[in-house]
Amino acid sequence: MSTTSRITAAALAAAAGMTALAGCGSSGTGGSSADAKTVTLVSHDSFNASKSVLAAFEKESGYKVKVLRGGDAGKAVNQAILSKDNPQGDVFFGIDNTLLSRGLNAGIFTPYKAKGLDGVPADLQLDKGAHRVTPLDYGDICVNYDRAYFTQHKLAPPQTFDDLLKPQYKGLLVTENSATSSPGLAFQLGTIATHGEAGWPDYWKKLKANGVEVVDGWEQAYNERFSGSAAGKGKGDKPLVVSYASSPPAEVMGKNPAPKEAPTGVATGTCFRQIEFGGLLKGAKNEKGGKALLDFLLSKKFQEDMPLQMFVNPARTDAKEPELFTRYGAKIDKPAALAPETIAKNRDQWIKQWSSLVLK
Predict the structure, then answer these.
(1) Global pTM value
(2) Residue 356 burial by Cβ neighbours in a 10 Å radius (0-12, 13-18, 19+)
(3) pLDDT tens across 143-152, in order?
(4) Of the candidates 319, 20, 317, 318, the residue with the CA atom closest to the CA atom of residue 309
(5) Cβ contacts of residue 266 below 8 Å, gap of 6+?
(6) Among candidates 340, 313, 261, which has minimal Cα distance to 3?
(7) DSSP output for 222-258
């Protein structure tokens, strides 16, 4: 899913690129002695965790954690597939239900049933029988809007996919490329779930005619093009952006006094649910450390840290979400959805078709 604070700290994570956190040593299962004391997590740019939480894992496990960030989730998954014969690390975090079959079919994961999986709802366990991946969080991809823009222009914000086709919203929306960005792909899948396999191409023709802008990834869309992004300091000129139902809390975090509502809102009729997974990479140099890290990612300590670090919902039902996250985030009761097997069967062709319709 995309956000180091999916809004504010994501740029810092991207700039850091590679983060190594010091910890005590312990024996692993292969590689040099240095490798045996380090467990490497490969992820998208938006992975983040509190230093104290990671430090607790390092102290308890004896491993130091090294984080390798590889761009948007789509790019990170593609790189993991390309490097599967010589994996960059031990654990991959950030493959979601829109891309899951791509990673599974490429055989990049080693099966492992993480501790705590019994506390995860069955509808999030899309690989339940094989345990090649572990569900770690979920969120809803939705159009976000800049409240100030719509107030100033005395215009009601859109709420549904069909609203985005109306002339009053012409040229206001920026979305991510379906071929390179998981939020972009999720948004496309939302339109397919809503308009059907026969109707979605015509929808996108109309959306293109209504001036939708497409950029490579979430960072560019939200922090550079969206007018409501605090990180972008209002320099963007698009008051509509494809982001997350949990993005508004990130715009409020740190503000004192806390506002009555977030400066950004969510078009609740434009949402598609994204489930994010982690997995032990096949050929991992430190398989033992990787298993320990996966257990930790599903632990209550890490799960309760996630909402205000990556602005996602924890997979564990017993993980408590902070008040800021629940107060300002939009709760989506009925997001658009497609069966995993439907996505797996059609995804690549849908992306090609979308690219020919929208990018040319």
Answers:
(1) 0.82
(2) exposed
(3) 999 999 999 9
(4) 319
(5) 142, 143, 144, 145, 245, 247, 248, 330, 332
(6) 313
(7) IIIIBTT-TTTTT---BSEEEEETTHHHHHHTT-SSP
